[in-house]
Amino acid sequence: MTTAIYGVGSMGGAVLDGLVAGGGAQVLAVVRRSEQADRLREQYAEHPGVEVVEPEDAAARADVHLLLVKPYGVADLLEAISPSLRPDAIVVSMALGVSLADLAGHLSAGTAAIRAMPNTPAKVGQGMTVLSPSDDVSDEQLTRVRELLAPTGRTIVLPESQQDAATAVSGSAPAYVYLFVEGLVDAGVAQGLTRPQALAMATQAVRGAGAMLAETGEDPAVLRTHVTSPGGSTAAALARLEAHGMRHALADAVKACTDRSAGR
Ligand SMILES: NC(=O)C1=CN([C@@H]2O[C@H](COP(=O)(O)OP(=O)(O)OC[C@H]3O[C@@H](n4cnc5c(N)ncnc54)[C@H](OP(=O)(O)O)[C@@H]3O)[C@@H](O)[C@H]2O)C=CC1
Ligand SMILES: O=C(O)[C@@H]1CCC=N1
């Protein structure tokens, strides 16, 4: 199966790296600046499965088309490539807020289209991609896309009506975690740790807590009580986080993100 990636920026580059690390990927990368094309050819010189090509070439040759340009660039891109797409092509838009109806408006009737929301940990095979297929996508096509993306991490299928909330809790969420880690490191430095010491500990705390959530399937509130000894240090810290409104800040941020995704 040949995959085209249109737009190799932060997210497109992460998907490309994730697919390549999975081994055996056949990827046609489409960029619009010659210096970026040169850089990519050099970067992937050891990977014969990666080619940098013109959009029309990718459109004609690929089975699956991953759109990773900015949302405002999707319409022009589809106008440019849709005449060359094969009838059995699958178009997967990963652009914020671009609806299945928007996609259909620039594609031939019946073209299989999927709206998707990935996140950047795709780069290290730990991403999550939320997929919402149109009615033109068969179960077999959806399975092919999920298998294609497997090297980038997990996939789940949700109705399109949940894409905006999924953006807020998945697509954008790594940034909240990085902000949390930045704050934890700064706070650790204030308490006498060196920055590298604090970063190593904070990184491992996030990695370990994530693994506990994923591997035990336990409710986060239960896992939290296991850390919180009666009258201990964690209870003292959590009381301050609650007093400073951490839950409220998250609720407000997730609503703002959902609203932005929905264009509200
Ligand atoms: N960043 C993230 O965490 C996530 C991003 N997304 C979505 O992914 C998409 C890309 O976002 P992001 O990677 O952050 O943005 P970037 O600006 O980092 O990447 C966009 C890339 O697309 C390139 N590009 C623009 N137009 C074309 C074109 N016509 N043909 C080929 N390449 C083109 C840009 O090239 P140039 O450098 O020349 O401008 C740039 O390299 C967006 O739609 C966003 O909503 C979704 C989930 C998460
Ligand atoms: O910030 C953005 O618009 C993109 C979409 C989700 C994550 N990054």
Task: Provide tags for this entry.
single chain, 264 residues, alpha/beta, Rossmann fold, ProC C-terminal domain-like fold, 2 domains, 8-stranded mixed sheet, 12 helices, 8 strands, 15% strand, binds NADPH dihydro-nicotinamide-adenine-dinucleotide phosphate, binds (2S)-3,4-dihydro-2H-pyrrole-2-carboxylic acid
Give a quick rundown of the structure:
The protein is of the alpha/beta class.
Folded structure, characterized:
The chain is 52% helix and 15% strand. The protein has 264 residues and is an alpha/beta fold. The chain folds into two domains: 2-158, Rossmann fold (3-Layer(aba) Sandwich); 173-261, ProC C-terminal domain-like fold, CATH 1.10.3730.10. Helix 7 (163-171) crosses helix 12 (246-261) and helix 8 packs across helix 9 (195-216). 31% of the residues are buried. The mean pLDDT is 97. Residues 6-12, 30-33, 68-71, 73, 77, 94-96, 117-120, 171 line the site of NADPH dihydro-nicotinamide-adenine-dinucleotide phosphate. NADPH dihydro-nicotinamide-adenine-dinucleotide phosphate binds next to helix 1. Pathway: Amino-acid biosynthesis; L-proline biosynthesis; L-proline from L-glutamate 5-semialdehyde: step 1/1. GO terms for molecular function: pyrroline-5-carboxylate reductase activity. It is found in: Cytoplasm.
